[in-house]
Amino acid sequence: MDALPFLLLLLQLSCAPFFQLSWNGCSQLDAELTEHYEPSPWAPASCGSAAAAGKGKGRRRWFRLLKNSTALGDPAVAPCYADQLRVVYDRAVTDYRNVARVWTRVVSFGTTRGFGSDDDPSDPERDLCMGRLVEALEKVGYRDGETLFGAPYDFRQAPAAPGKPCRAFSRFRRQLRALVEHASRTNGDQPVILVSHSQGGYFALEFLNRSPMAWRRRHVKHFVMASTGAGGFVLGLQSLVSGVSDASPMGLAGRSLACKFTSLPSPKTRALPVAMNFRAPAVPTTCINGVGVPTTEKLVYWDGDFSQAPEIVYGDGDGVVNSASILALDTVIGEDPRQEYYKSVKIAGTSHDGVVSDGAALERLVSEIPRENFVQASEEDSRVAQL
To answer: Origin, by domain of life (predicted)?
Structure first.
């Protein structure tokens, strides 16, 4: 198949509804414990048994931390995995890191095998991790590791503002740049196509905007960004505010994740400069979003009682991203003078996850990927395509 190398940039579904997905991330993580690892006070002392078993043996053992459906479904083991999954903010270096004496690594970077779950091939969440998209592309001739690549990342982390330390994102940028160059080089020096879903869009945009313009134009032919808005989404506030009352091990772990702040609409956090600097990538870009699905637009906590479920006011969107954020893409990206080509596709009645899993929506997404000509047509036809 004479095809452009296709770099599938899939990052974990948005961190805000993370709890609603039962901690099922798309990227998989391995972990290993040093012999000096000590569980947190709220975790069982037995959590350190794996580290203790390795004492004096001169080597550590990697194990699947996430996604591990078997372990997370065991009440005796789940608190250990929650403790080891946490990240902490180190004020000395102004960066997030793992819990002390826990090492982690992303599984199968560079291939699509790093998405979903190894221990449960029948996992229904697989389709949400672009499983159906990968299958559709393979049917038309793309091959994993040859013309089809995956870029899983540590979903617990989030980009920091330029000039601020963020070891995880810096490492991801180096790896992704090398992968893009490898994909191009091994396919006749053709530029690649980047595809992201949900929070992957934020990482892809940061990666592109922190890459030299000459490099972008040389190596990236088309960027397809699915289910990502330009202004955050309200649902993120609910998991952050209401999550305070969740004292479960996974609730405690969840409140430590840096990515929870990436999509918040307005808080002054470490991630605010990144959110406020959302801008056009200056490469041909197609944004594909679902609309017409009831989406959380306002949360009302009566009497300031955040321990109670809020009254939810719904508006339009894809069930996660609000329509205001989706429409803002037309301004933030489409009206940027550096953005030579921009197209927005809005698919009626399609959910946040449905863009990459529902039949008709997936067919439309696939049809946009191999675009050869990027001639800006009329305002109605090229800037907004409404289905």
So the answer is: Eukaryota
Prediction pTM value? 0.83
Q: 3-class SS at 140?
A: coil
What whole-number distance in Å separates Cα of residue 82 and Cα of residue 346?
37
Domain membership of residue 46 (yes or no) is no
CA distance 149 to 147: 7
Looking at residue 308, the DSSP 8-state letter turns out to be S
Q: How many domains does the chain have?
A: 1
Q: Examine residue 96 and state whether it is found in any structural domain, yes or no.
A: no
d(CA 318, CA 355): 9
User: Is residue 80 in a domain?
Assistant: no
Tell me, rounded to whole angstroms, the distance of Cα 208 from its chain centroid: 15
Tokens representing residue 99 in the block: 């819990």
**Contact partners, residue 210, CB within 8 Å, separation at least 6:** 162, 173
Parent domain of 197: 6-28+107-386
Contacts of residue 6, Cβ cutoff 8 Å, sequence gap at least 6? 137, 142, 147, 148, 149, 192, 193, 195, 369
Alpha-carbon distance of 76 to 312, in angstroms, equals: 35
- CATH (domain of 172): 3.40.50.1820
Distance CA 344, CA 338 (A): 17
Q: pLDDT tens digits for 42-56? A: 788 888 765 544 444
Residue 134, pLDDT score = 85
Which has more confidence, 233 or 250? 233
Q: Does 65 fall in a domain?
A: no
Distance CA 269, CA 205 (A): 19
Q: Is the dihedral of CA 69, 70, 74, 77 positive or negative?
A: negative
Residues acting as catalytic residues: 198, 318, 352
